[in-house]
Design brief:
The chain is mostly beta strands and about 170 residues long. The chain has one domain. It contains 1 helix and 11 strands. The chain has one helix at about 75-80; strands at about 1-15, 25-35, 45-50, 55-60, 65, 90, 100-105, 110-125, 130-135, 140-145, 150. The strands form 2 sheets. Strands 6, 7, 8, 9, 10 and 11 form a 6-stranded antiparallel sheet that branches. Strand 8 (about 110-125) and strand 9 form a beta hairpin. It starts with a strand and ends in a 19-residue tail after the last strand.
Length: about 170
Protein backbone atom coordinates (compact mmCIF):
# COMPACT_ATOMS: atom_id res chain seq x y z
CA UNK A 1 0.00 0.00 0.00
CA UNK A 2 1.32 3.46 -0.93
CA UNK A 3 0.35 6.82 0.50
CA UNK A 4 1.44 10.37 -0.15
CA UNK A 5 2.90 12.47 2.67
CA UNK A 6 3.98 16.13 2.86
CA UNK A 7 7.46 16.65 1.39
CA UNK A 8 10.44 16.18 3.69
CA UNK A 9 13.86 17.36 2.48
CA UNK A 10 16.58 14.71 2.82
CA UNK A 11 20.04 13.77 1.61
CA UNK A 12 20.11 10.38 -0.11
CA UNK A 13 23.13 8.14 0.45
CA UNK A 14 24.33 7.54 -3.11
CA UNK A 15 25.17 3.85 -2.70
CA UNK A 16 21.43 3.13 -2.28
CA UNK A 17 20.83 4.58 -5.75
CA UNK A 18 23.31 2.04 -7.18
CA UNK A 19 22.02 -1.16 -5.58
CA UNK A 20 24.39 -0.91 -2.60
CA UNK A 21 27.59 -0.14 -4.54
CA UNK A 22 29.90 0.96 -1.70
CA UNK A 23 32.18 2.84 -4.11
CA UNK A 24 29.38 5.44 -4.45
CA UNK A 25 30.00 7.71 -1.46
CA UNK A 26 28.23 11.01 -2.27
CA UNK A 27 25.02 12.35 -0.80
CA UNK A 28 22.34 13.59 -3.18
CA UNK A 29 19.50 16.08 -2.54
CA UNK A 30 16.07 14.52 -2.32
CA UNK A 31 12.58 14.79 -0.90
CA UNK A 32 10.45 12.12 0.69
CA UNK A 33 7.03 12.33 -0.95
CA UNK A 34 5.37 9.07 0.12
CA UNK A 35 5.63 5.77 1.97
CA UNK A 36 4.96 2.10 1.20
CA UNK A 37 3.70 -0.59 3.52
CA UNK A 38 4.21 -4.28 2.71
CA UNK A 39 3.43 -7.13 5.15
CA UNK A 40 6.48 -8.42 7.02
CA UNK A 41 8.74 -5.64 5.67
CA UNK A 42 9.73 -2.31 7.15
CA UNK A 43 8.00 0.88 6.09
CA UNK A 44 9.81 2.24 3.03
CA UNK A 45 9.83 5.64 1.35
CA UNK A 46 9.30 7.22 -2.08
CA UNK A 47 12.07 9.75 -2.63
CA UNK A 48 12.29 12.29 -5.43
CA UNK A 49 16.03 12.61 -6.15
CA UNK A 50 17.41 15.84 -7.62
CA UNK A 51 13.83 16.95 -8.26
CA UNK A 52 13.51 14.59 -11.25
CA UNK A 53 14.11 10.90 -10.44
CA UNK A 54 11.64 8.95 -8.32
CA UNK A 55 12.95 6.03 -6.26
CA UNK A 56 10.56 3.78 -4.37
CA UNK A 57 11.03 1.29 -1.53
CA UNK A 58 13.93 3.23 -0.01
CA UNK A 59 14.67 2.07 3.57
CA UNK A 60 15.01 4.60 6.38
CA UNK A 61 18.80 4.21 6.56
CA UNK A 62 19.16 5.23 2.89
CA UNK A 63 18.71 8.91 3.68
CA UNK A 64 19.78 11.47 6.27
CA UNK A 65 18.91 15.10 6.94
CA UNK A 66 22.46 16.42 7.45
CA UNK A 67 25.95 15.08 6.79
CA UNK A 68 26.86 12.43 9.36
CA UNK A 69 30.01 11.64 11.26
CA UNK A 70 31.71 8.71 9.53
CA UNK A 71 32.04 6.98 12.90
CA UNK A 72 28.23 6.81 13.12
CA UNK A 73 26.81 4.16 10.80
CA UNK A 74 23.31 3.05 11.76
CA UNK A 75 21.72 0.04 10.14
CA UNK A 76 18.05 -0.64 9.43
CA UNK A 77 17.44 -2.53 12.69
CA UNK A 78 18.92 0.38 14.68
CA UNK A 79 16.33 2.78 13.28
CA UNK A 80 13.14 0.70 12.90
CA UNK A 81 11.42 -1.31 15.63
CA UNK A 82 9.18 -3.62 13.65
CA UNK A 83 7.97 -4.72 10.26
CA UNK A 84 4.55 -3.74 8.94
CA UNK A 85 2.05 -6.31 10.17
CA UNK A 86 -0.90 -5.01 8.15
CA UNK A 87 -1.23 -3.16 4.87
CA UNK A 88 -3.65 -0.31 5.48
CA UNK A 89 -1.71 2.72 6.64
CA UNK A 90 -2.55 6.31 7.33
CA UNK A 91 -0.35 9.37 7.85
CA UNK A 92 -1.22 11.90 10.50
CA UNK A 93 0.57 14.64 12.39
CA UNK A 94 0.24 15.29 16.09
CA UNK A 95 0.14 19.09 15.90
CA UNK A 96 1.06 19.54 19.57
CA UNK A 97 4.46 17.89 18.90
CA UNK A 98 5.48 19.76 15.73
CA UNK A 99 9.00 21.19 16.25
CA UNK A 100 9.17 19.49 19.66
CA UNK A 101 12.43 18.01 20.90
CA UNK A 102 11.99 14.42 22.02
CA UNK A 103 14.27 11.62 23.17
CA UNK A 104 14.13 8.25 21.46
CA UNK A 105 15.41 5.02 22.98
CA UNK A 106 17.20 2.89 20.37
CA UNK A 107 16.69 -0.59 21.73
CA UNK A 108 19.36 -2.52 19.83
CA UNK A 109 22.03 0.06 20.66
CA UNK A 110 20.76 0.59 24.21
CA UNK A 111 21.05 4.37 24.09
CA UNK A 112 19.02 7.56 23.90
CA UNK A 113 19.18 10.06 21.04
CA UNK A 114 17.57 13.48 20.95
CA UNK A 115 15.48 14.33 17.95
CA UNK A 116 12.57 16.27 16.53
CA UNK A 117 9.08 14.93 15.82
CA UNK A 118 8.10 15.04 12.11
CA UNK A 119 4.95 12.94 11.48
CA UNK A 120 3.20 9.69 12.39
CA UNK A 121 1.92 6.52 10.70
CA UNK A 122 -1.02 4.41 11.82
CA UNK A 123 -1.46 0.75 10.89
CA UNK A 124 -5.10 0.97 11.90
CA UNK A 125 -6.05 -2.67 11.34
CA UNK A 126 -3.20 -3.84 13.54
CA UNK A 127 -3.50 -1.43 16.49
CA UNK A 128 0.02 -0.18 15.80
CA UNK A 129 1.65 3.13 15.00
CA UNK A 130 5.07 4.71 14.70
CA UNK A 131 6.48 8.19 14.53
CA UNK A 132 9.08 9.60 12.14
CA UNK A 133 11.72 11.38 14.22
CA UNK A 134 14.64 13.42 12.83
CA UNK A 135 17.59 12.43 15.06
CA UNK A 136 20.23 14.97 16.09
CA UNK A 137 22.99 12.80 14.57
CA UNK A 138 21.58 13.18 11.02
CA UNK A 139 19.54 9.97 10.76
CA UNK A 140 15.78 9.43 10.99
CA UNK A 141 14.00 6.75 13.02
CA UNK A 142 10.55 5.16 13.07
CA UNK A 143 9.76 4.72 16.75
CA UNK A 144 6.68 3.45 18.60
CA UNK A 145 4.98 5.49 21.33
CA UNK A 146 6.61 3.65 24.21
CA UNK A 147 10.19 4.27 22.99
CA UNK A 148 9.79 8.05 22.90
CA UNK A 149 9.93 10.45 25.80
CA UNK A 150 7.91 13.36 24.48
CA UNK A 151 9.36 15.77 27.05
CA UNK A 152 12.92 15.18 25.84
CA UNK A 153 14.02 13.37 29.02
CA UNK A 154 15.96 10.13 28.81
CA UNK A 155 13.64 7.98 30.91
CA UNK A 156 11.57 5.03 29.67
CA UNK A 157 8.09 4.58 31.08
CA UNK A 158 7.27 1.23 32.65
CA UNK A 159 3.67 1.52 31.39
CA UNK A 160 2.51 -1.26 29.09
CA UNK A 161 0.95 -0.88 25.63
CA UNK A 162 -2.83 -1.09 25.54
CA UNK A 163 -3.59 -4.12 23.36
CA UNK A 164 -7.30 -4.32 24.13
CA UNK A 165 -10.04 -3.67 21.61
CA UNK A 166 -12.91 -1.65 23.02
CA UNK A 167 -16.42 -2.49 21.78
CA UNK A 168 -20.01 -2.41 22.93
Amino acid sequence: MNISIPKIKVLVIESFLYNGDISKKNIINGEIIGVSSYPNQTLTFHILVDGKYLYSDMPIHSFIWKPINNDVNYELDDLVYSNCETLPIDNFTLDCFINTEVSVYLKRLGNWISGEYITSFDFYEGNDSCHLIKLENGYFTLAPNHKINWSGNEILSDYLKNKKTWKI
